[in-house]
Amino acid sequence: MDHFIVPLLNLFRAAESGIVLSAQAEDPGVIRETINYIARRIDLIGELMLEHLWLVIIAIVIAVVVSVVVGIIISYYERSAQAVLWLCQILMVIPSLAMLAFMVPLFGIGFTTGVVALILYSLLPVVRNTYTGIRELSPAIVEAAKGMGMTEWRILTKIKIPLATPVIMAGIRTATVMVVGIAAIAAYVGAGGLGELIFQGISRSNEPMIIVGAIGVSIIALAFDFLLHWGEKHFAAKGKPGEVTEE
Predict the structure, then answer these.
(1) What is the mean pLDDT of residues 110-119?
(2) Does some domain include residue 61?
């Protein structure tokens, strides 16, 4: 969990640092300059936000499909499950810049490298929650379904996955917010997004660019967190166990 929190905290710290710099700067107009920068470069900021969103959405969609399938498969194989979860954990603890550096020789500089790195970072929360959500279902529910003559496929699609969906959604929420933060670092290898403003602002000592980039990423992270929190509650309400019936 710490590895998910750290990237987001770093972004908020960047925004906080910008505010502190504004307060301590000899020129009290840093905030005004930031507002002016937004007004002047609103088209660029909007374009970079769309790039950031596209990068996150592509990575999360692919990661969720792969992770849910892997999580379902390892829920039937306990020995393999531990090895897969261990591998996902190893991938997640690799520093962001190191991961991107590993990807460059394979995929070159650009969007693809950023997407692949983000997918690898997203695996652990979703795989682990899918596996845990299915494995922790009450055995009585599964046995009741088997007693009614339901096939394993129907048990999986009609009982296991629906009841595990709130837990899976929690993993997707964690992975998405984490990826929004790491996507800013992916700009270092030319993946695009709001990270370009942050890196260019640092290289030029341009405080408005840093502040706009950091706040933009934070807004996207909070928006995703809000939407997925709503989805998590929605599926939790629908996924409350009741009587097992065969359609």
Answers:
(1) 91
(2) yes
